[in-house]
Amino acid sequence: MCGFAGFAGPGGERDLAVMTSIIRHRGPDDDGVHIDTGGALPVHLGFRRLAIIDIEGGHQPMATAEGDLVIVYNGEIYNAPELRRALEQAGHRFVTDHSDTEVLLHGYREWGLDMLERLNGMFAFCLHDRRRGRLVFGRDRFGKKPLFYAETADGLVFASEATAVLSHPSVPDGLDRNALVKYFAYGFIPAPLTAHAAVRKLPGGCSMVYDLTSRRLSVSRYWEYRMVVDDQPPGGPDQWAEELRELLDRAVERRMLSDVPVGFFLSGGIDSAAIVALAAKHRDPASMKTFTIGFDEPSFDESGYAADAARHYGTDHACRTLNLDTAAGMLPELLGRLDDPIADPSILPTHLLSRFARERVTVALTGDGGDELFAGYDTFDALRTARLYHHAVPRPLHRLAEAVAHRLPRSDRNMSFDFKLRRALRGLGHRPAHWMPAWLGPASVEEVSRLFGADLTADELYDEADALWRSGASRHDVDRSIEFYGRFYLGENLLIKADRASMFCSLETRSPFLDRDLVAFVSRLPAGVKLQPNGIRGGTRKWILKKAMAPLLPPAILSRPKKGFGIPLSRWLRHLPQPPMETAARIGVDGAWLAARWDEHRSGQADHRGLLWAWTALATALDRPAKTPAPMENAA
User: Can you state which reaction this protein catalyses (predicted)?
Assistant: First the structure.
């Protein structure tokens, strides 16, 4: 796990040094540069390394023996040993002992960009193909590892974080209003947009090629998360459960490969417990370090369940508690470093958990992806009722229901009835393609319109989700909702949160549920075994995963209702400081209207937790001086 930065075009070593210094937290162990001024455009590549695999031989930038290919790369390729064997059989000769970086170099030479379809891992890379005069970029399927870039009049600038791109003198520092509107609608900014008008991010599952002579940039998609409804695996639920368990076991084993200490995030829920249970098959549980975060608010606290799970498997377990004072102390620095903001408040406990784990390990396995692949959220339960409601309830009656729900007493408890009802009704005011973003987003269509002083529609705000909903092969609400979660909520929100929260303290996190082979298998399973129908109330979520893990997990974990990794946000927002309203003018939103929402929330008249947290995260991230132009060095 590392970070890289670079540019093609004007600039010099000092510019590169500034860019790599900004991402030093991603790689405190080593650094390196590659500078080539002999082509159509000068190329500068910089690298920061967090040494995980082949500590002695994995220095970057790494070049082939002939020097015609040079790469900087962030991530881990879990099937690198198999790919290396195939490449050796094809005649390639390796210099390093077991570096996955060198596998990418030889893989590109052998297969070109078709290599991307063979990779099982998390990655972002830039490869300088000197012979063909181009830069080649790739990003993993779900987009776990970040890659930002900016096209300029004279070249291309790129890095693992947007702030590093913006530090280059050729990149202007202005905001993208459309991206900010999307941010309040979704809670994240969908790729390729970022908060910064000049900066874009390469979507997950895509490659990019920049021709150094023509200065033309092309982006291609090599993979997209879709349900394969016409290619159901042979057999039935018993065989599927067994194969699922074997695939997850293999994914866990692959992700335990490391030359540095490995630990595990453990919440006591089925996803993280499944990872620990399978890992315990491959190593002594007493040597396994597990970590969890607790809360002083009981309805949010899962630390007791995590402790029970740790005792069941016999791991070396540790826990810390996050309270309001701790959160308030972390908030300015943590949110201030989110150069591509997300409105997910669980970044606070995720970062504290990462800092805590980093004291003892360098790598941690997580349960990320389990809920998205197997329909694990409350919103999936709501689908069947939503479809009936959509057909049966006229608009006037729906507006009456919203008015009644608005008058219900408000609770600060985790996923309280009044919160779920108001959020459900918000989504049900829209057509099915918009249910998921409306349920998950921090602000309603009306709130986003009022905030930006524009008459916006759901079709405008959720057009990405709408296009995905309409283009899928499956007509099943569960399948289409799973695609939304995988493509947007997971790829654009949760994985960004995990990357930033962990890499700010130089911890690598790995997600076995996102294994290429596992995802391919699960995408072929029918919706009914992920959310098993159970009358009008929805069904049994994660049914096939629970069946697969039943031989290894205690019944208490299998039957536990999902709690979620939330924080007591509604209560905390009544005490956390309000961001300075001067930022509202810079962003172009109605500061007076926002201030009124703060007053309503703090007095208990309304619950604006989603809107106010989204504003807090954005304003804190953007509350920094505009970039002061610096003299640009000439590479020539």
Answer: L-aspartate + L-glutamine + ATP + H2O = L-asparagine + L-glutamate + AMP + diphosphate + H(+)
Please give the annotated binding residues, written as ranges.
100, 293
Rounded to the nearest 10 degrees, the angle between the axes of helix 609-622 and helix 591-603 is: 130
Residue positions in the annotated binding site for ATP?
A: 293
Residue 270: strand pairing partners = none
What is the pLDDT at residue 327? 83
Q: How confident is the model at residue 360 (pLDDT cuts 50, 70, 90)?
A: very high
Q: Is 551 helix (H, G, I), strand (E, B) or coil?
A: coil
Q: 77-91, 110-124, 411-425 — which is least confidently predicted?
A: 411-425
User: Are residues 157 and 299 both part of a single domain?
Assistant: no
Contact 16, 47 (CB under 8 A): no
**One-letter identity of residue 298:** P
Which residue would you say has higher pLDDT here, 518 or 268? Answer: 518
CATH of the domain at 296: 3.40.50.620
539 three-class SS:
strand
- In the block, residue with structure tokens 């012979």: 131
Amino acid at 62: M
CB contact at 8 A, 130 and 202 = no
- Backbone φ and ψ of 430, nearest 5°: -120, 170
49 and 195 inside one domain: yes
- The mean predicted confidence, pLDDT, of the chain is 90
pLDDT over 90 for what percent of the chain?
A: 69
Q: Would the pTM of this model clear 0.85, i.e. be above it?
A: yes
Mean pLDDT of 241-261: 94
Identify the domain boundary among 221, 246, 275: 221
Distance of CA 132 to the CA centre of its chain: 33
Pair (212, 259) in one structural domain: no
- Classify residue 619: in a domain, yes or no: no
Query: Are residues 197 and 304 part of one domain?
Result: no
DSSP secondary-structure letter at 632?
P
Q: How many structural domains compose the chain? A: 2
Do 96 and 195 lie in one domain? The reply is: yes
Query: If pLDDT is split at 50, 70 and 90, which confidence band does 523 have?
Result: very high
In a domain, 105, yes or no: yes
Domain coverage including residue 69: 3-221
CATH of the domain at 182: 3.60.20.10
Q: Is residue 106 part of a domain?
A: yes
Quick one: which of 396, 371, 375, 397 has its CA closest to 384?
Answer: 375
Residue 39 lies in a domain: yes
Active-site entry in 2, 126, 206, 319: 2
Of the chain, the end-to-end C-alpha distance in Å amounts to: 32
- Pair 214, 132 in one domain: yes
Is the model's pLDDT at 418 over the cut of 80?
no
Bind-site residues for L-glutamine:
100
State the angle between helix axes of 417-428 and 395-406 in degrees (0 to 180), rounded to the nearest 10: 150
Q: Which residue, 506, 525, 559, sits at the end of a domain? A: 559
User: Is residue 206 among the annotated active site residues?
Assistant: no
Helix (H) / strand (E) element for 582: namely: helix 582-587
Q: How far is CA 457 from CA 89, 376, 454, 462, 517, in A?
A: 57, 29, 9, 9, 39
